[in-house]
Amino acid sequence: MLKLSDSALLRDRAYVDGAWIAAHSGDTFAVTNPADGSLIIRVPAMGAAETRAAIEAADRAWGPWKARTAKERSAVLKRWFDLIMAAQNDLAVLMTAEQGKPLAEAKGEVAYGAAFVEWFAEEAKRVYGDVIPEHLPGRRIVVTKEPVGVVAAITPWNFPIAMITRKCAPALAAGCPVVVKPAEDTPLSALALAELAERAGFPPGIFNVITAGDPKAVGGELTANAKVRKLSFTGSTEVGKLLMAQCAATVKKLSLELGGNAPFIVFDDADLDAAVVGAMASKFRNTGQTCVCANRLLVQDGVYDAFAAKLAEAVGALKVGPGLEGDVQQGPLINEEAVLKVERHIADSVAKGARVVTGGQRHSLGGTFFQPTILADVTTAMAPSREETFGPVAPLFRFKTEEEAVRMANDTEFGLAAYFYSRDVGRVWRVSRALEYGIVGINEGIISTEVAPFGGMKESGLGREGSKYGIEDFLEVKYLCMGGI
Ligand code: ADP
Hints:
Keywords: Oxidoreductase. By secondary structure, the chain is α/β, with parallel strands linked by helices.
């Protein structure tokens, strides 16, 4: 049994219209700990009917919520932020139990997730419109911004709190109610957030969490229901495309944070030690399971061997184990499917001539633990070149010129995050502009913060989250044309 100082944060009901409810059918599904496969608790397996009820509750609650002043909404968000931070330890234990990440990373995510709530509590008060100089005498042109309406949020398991707050905080700040469907692997963090939202004083219907073991029926209702005006989704490109198609019939606004295939380029003139630190942080955070994790390490000929040796030393020192245990740096992968993908990428690379520098196998701890791995001599013919590995595998590609590096980096349908290390100021400007990515880390491996816009180009998605841009995605622009003046 999980030891929480506030046991009410572990919920086994979904949260709809201010009430904690079971599925109509009474069905539940298991939430398990990926470190040992043990059952944590069972939660409701909901479907279309419960989802419709949540949407209707949200729609009813919308009018009074948007009618509040921005300062009033901001005050509720600030209380939510304070409650999340006060519960940081419990939320981290809950997250590590259901998701597997090391406890220190889970604590970091709680703070990172809470930071979006704080940021958008502040931004709520800065939703400004415009007055435009009129084009005809006797007219006035005014632009206002209004909340889009009921928002559906479908979120992944890799950041069980931050992916929810990054969507819901700007929506709530703007005046929109939300219906959240968290990933089936990690509903407990979402339910704990709902408990804290209730305590913070969000009115019934403003923040709803629907749990489902099979997401199709819930996703079907969220995308088909005309009362939902916007869908914000983070997850795989495949599911994102499906949801986008499903939203077409009702022309919903969309924010999509989809897959990446992040290049991490190390030029000859890089500070190699700094590049290793950045590569470790970018590649191995969350055991390689983030959409901005370095997926392809492109290393220039002249420093290839030196970089590989330094990286191997750092990877060899990583401590693997259950996330709740002390100083562990690498937890288990989320499930067996994730391990199979990692194994497939390694096998495909090795079959085509890549070399395992370190790791390459399942870890002796068993279950879904995997050895942190480095592959050398990886080429564009191999699986990691095309697909996101989403695991602790660092594939090293070799390049000769800057032009070649940029070409390789952009040779993908994805465009979320890219990284490069160089100390040549001209190259820094040239490569920054040439990379077709929404986020570029220059001599930095960790780029996420609530104050900057997060999002991708190409098939990595639509819209931006966080920063002053993040609230715009939840606002409609209205133009008032006044005559007879
Ligand atoms: P991952 O590969 O990271 O698990 P998914 O795209 O499968 O990514 O999952 C991200 C989120 O999308 C999860 O909440 C999942 O339940 C949800 N999801 C998956 N398939 C569907 C679907 N057909 N309709 C609605 N939501 C879905």
